[in-house]
Each structure stands twice: as C-alpha cells, then as structure tokens.
Amino acid sequence: MSLSDVDVTPPATAQHVFIARQPIFDAQETRVAYELLYRATREATRAYLGEVSPSLMCGDTALHALLSIGLDRLTHGAVAYMNVTEEHLLGELYKIFDPAAVVLELLETVEGTPAVVDACRRAVADGYTLALDDYDGRASLDALLPFVKVVKVDVLDRDVRVLGPWVARLRERGLTVLAERVETQEALAAARAIGCTLFQGYVFSRPETLDGRSVNVHQAAVLQIVGLLNEPDATDNALEEAFRSHPSLSLSLLRIVNSAAFGGRGVDSIPHALQLIGREALSRWMLIMLVATVGSRSPVTHEAVVAALVRGRFCETVTARGASGDPAARFLLGLLSRMDTLLGLPMVQVLERLPVSGDVRAALLDRCGPHAAMLMLAEAYEQGDWPQVDALSSDDELPALYAEAVSWANDRLVTVSRA
Questions:
Q1: Cα–Cα distance measured from residue 38 to residue 110, given in angstroms and rounded to the nearest whole number
Q2: Which of 282, 281, 309, 279 has its CA nearest to residue 294?
C-alpha cells in the first residue's frame, strides 16, 4: 500500500492524542534528537478508530497529532525518533515525514520477516534512517541489521557482561548503539565503557549530571530581586536600587523590555522599565533569566532549562483553560519544580531563597495541597505515563498546549540570550 492509497484527512470530529518527548544525547552530551512518545486518548477517539481502519487513519493517532501540531513545533529542527509499527512500515505511512527530519524506530514487536525486510529496503532507498528499538540479541532480528543505522539497547538493571558482547557485535557491523533507560551515573559510565555512543534516560535530568554547585553571585542577585518583586511592601525605589547594585542585570532588564517581546519600546531607564513591564511579568522574566544562566553551563543543562520553562508554561496554560487555581502561581510551580536539579541544591534550600506560598511549597516538597495534581500531571505528561495523565486530566487540548509551551520556552530563551 502506498501513501496515495491512504486517506490522511483528519476526521470531522477532531482526534486527540498525547505527545511527549525525551532528548537523546551523544557522547559529548550534546542533544542530537528527541524521541516522541504518544498514545490515543479517551473513549470518543477510541470509538472513532473502532469505526475506521487504523491503516486508513495512518495506523496511529500520533501521526495525525504531528500533522496538526507540526513536527517542528515539537522538536525545533532536531531529528525526531518516531516509533513505527509493522503496519506503519508495510503501509509506508512514514512517508508523510521528511526523511531528513525523522528516524524511523522499529518497535520491538517488529520481526525480520521477508515482508518487513523488503519494506526496510524500500524505506532506506527512499532516504529514511532506521533504528531498532529494544534490541535483545534474538536471531530473528539479524535480517534487519543491514538496514538500520542505530540500535537501541535497554540498560536498566541489565548485566553489562551480557550487553557488552551484543554491543561489540553491533559495532563490528558499523552500527551506532544507543543506550536507553539510563537512570544513574553508574549506568551511564557502564554504557560508555561497552561502546554505546548515544544515550537516553532520566539520568540527564538529575542533579549529578548537571554539575551541581552553589548559587553564584549573579544568580543570588536574581533571587534577591525575585524576592523583592514578590514582597507586597517592597517599594519601587528598593527595586530600582537592587537593579542599580548589579549593572549587568540592569542592562539585561532594559534589553528585555526593549526587545521584540515587548514591542521594542525604547525604554532607557530602570523606573520606566519597571513601570511598563509590571512586577508580575518582571518576576517571570527574572526567573527565566535565572534558569538561562544555569543552562549556559553545558548542552545537558540547557536542555534541562528548556524542560523547566516548558513545564512552567504548560502548568500555566492548562490552568488558564479552566483548571482551578491561579495560572501565575502554576507557572512558578512548574518552573521551581526543576530548580533543585538546575541549581544542584535540595528543594528545601532552593525554597529558602525564594518567597513562595505555603501551597506551592507543599506541592514541591510533599506533593500535596491544591497545586499537587497539576505538578503531577506535568510530570506524567513528560514521562509519557498516559494512564496517569488520563487519571489527572480530561482536557483533550493537552497536546496543543504542550506544543505551544515548547515554542514559548524556546522563544523566551532566545530573548534572554540577547539581553
């Protein structure tokens, strides 16, 4: 079946899916790609798919989501690893994607049958890159190895004495081996030692990989100003003096307010900038500036900064659509929930430096209180824990809100980097 035989027109009643992403890093800890994670949601969508063949609807609702949201909005130009079933492969449904934009990741359920081998040969001839997911060394996969460039090996709780020979054989064939589910520094070191050169897993979001250190002078100044901005009794004069005490922050403030984000207003003084931007917006920009300074350390920390901004924006926009709570507080909640990782400090110490409400503190420290469910929703979405997402939210616009949060985060980092 060719793509021309497939009706990719979205149904009259919109389908909704959840999409998350996880970064993939190379040996230099440079982010080189994202894997996109997805699943169809709720009874209405499942009922619709029950009436129309999944093959006629591209075999998976994720393809429709990417068509409607836009691949670039999710990856900002990075390569996307797309999970591909045997049905996708045989039907050539992947052809809706630019070969340069994706890696087709053959799921572990795909076997090296003659039909699958022929389909792989056609995909490679058309310029697509193939990866093999969750390789376990079974002989039935050998027929696929001549057509793939990347082989993913699950290293979680696996014995390197078993994985080492697999990796060696794969590398002898000129294949790149990607270690997935890398969750500790020890696992990362072991994966490197046996020859893996691409890496994916939660270890890249944990403090030990982010060069944890004490807050530097610049970051302490930002935290001081954020504290003043959230103090009802702080005067404008006190805020102006705080900025004047740190010339680099004063310059950054003026550049931000004069940027395209605020319409290029021609502001030339701190009091004028404070008046125009307002305390709430300024507090947000200062927090963005804070995480951006942390992100300048390395590509891994930069990726963690993007994740923090995406989480903050996602929590804010989901709340603004009707969830109970204050959107501004939810933005702060999402952003701060990553600050322990970014600063390499326990969350208790992070919160000692910031004046936050008791409800925000309870959510961050104990996952309780009125904000806890929103934080757990964001965490579940990022991890692709779709049953938990379903249990916490019935909002079918979550995929679009997440994609918007990704774009928003990248745009804000561009603005701050110019400030």
A1: 18
A2: 309
CA–CA separation, 142 vs 155, rounded Å?
Answer: 20
Among 88, 122, 121, 126, which Cα is nearest to 105's? 88
Query: Cβ(351)–Cβ(361) under 8 Å?
Result: yes
Q: Provide the whole-model pTM.
A: 0.58
Distance CA 309, CA 312 (A): 5
Q: How many CB atoms lie within 10 A of CB 227?
A: 16
Which CATH number is associated with domain 217-418? 1.10.3210.10
Domain covering 3-148 in this structure, CATH number: 3.20.20.450
Q: Could you tell me the residue ranges of all domains in the chain?
A: 3-148, 217-418
Residue 126 predicted with pLDDT over 80: yes
pLDDT digits (tens, 9 = 90+) for 193-242: 999 999 998 877 533 333 334 445 566 667 677 777 767 777 888 887 77
CB atoms within 10 A of CB 229: 22
Nearest Cα neighbor of 153 from 172, 137, 130, 173 is 137
**pLDDT, tens digit, 9 for 90 and up, residues 95-122:** 778 899 899 999 888 889 999 999 999 9
List pLDDT tens digits, range 323-367. 778 887 888 888 888 887 777 677 887 777 666 778 888 999 999
The CA-based diameter of the chain, rounded to the nearest angstrom, is 76
Q: What is the DSSP string of 321-337?
A: TT-SS-HHHHHHHHHHT
